[in-house]
Amino acid sequence: MILIINGSPNKNSKTLKLAKSFATKDYMIINAYEQLINSCDDCKFCETKDGCKFNDDMNNIYNIINEVDTLIISSPIYFGSLSDKTMSIINRFQTYFSKKYQRKESVPTIKNLILVSTQGSYRKEFFNGPLQTMFILSKVFSSTFSEHLLIPSADQGVALNDNHKEKIDKIKKEIN
Ligand SMILES: Cc1cc2nc3c(=O)[nH]c(=O)nc-3n(C[C@H](O)[C@H](O)[C@H](O)COP(=O)(O)O)c2cc1C
After folding, report:
1. What CATH topology corresponds to 2-175?
2. Is residue 128 in contact with ligand 1, taking CB distance under 6 Å?
């Protein structure tokens, strides 16, 4: 199954529209701005125990993560980062990080990891932070295919060049 985490608050999110264009098989969307999720507060619970001390909407996301082979993070760039609600979810993946690297136990594998992001500016370096975030996620989830579609200057409309179109084809082939 494909899980799309939609990190845009916009009803007509340009980023989500792109992310949806990848998926021809079954997919599920989690709208980050509709979730009630506590911020990870580095309490260290997961350094020694399974799960998380918080009992909130992440429970559902943790259950879904067990079933997915493709995770698409779809988020606009906010101040050079993924949106805060996207990051709230990703920070709660700390439980997997601790499990794998501190407790040396196995965590779910997510074969395909895709980042889709748009931003207003032409400055491509604003995507650098999110790319690092995706790199860490690919290690945590042992992803074997990791790709990204990043569209700058999107405020006047998303213009896809040949490189973007090639990437879309490559991603579609891999995940469906
Ligand atoms: C709070 C906020 C912060 C933003 N920060 C940036 C930024 O750092 N760089 C940039 O290029 N665009 C920035 N933008 C513009 C959005 O990234 C851009 O409009 C994006 O394409 C919106 O995507 P969506 O339609 O999927 O929500 C920001 C927008 C908001 C609301």
Report:
1. Rossmann fold (3.40.50)
2. no
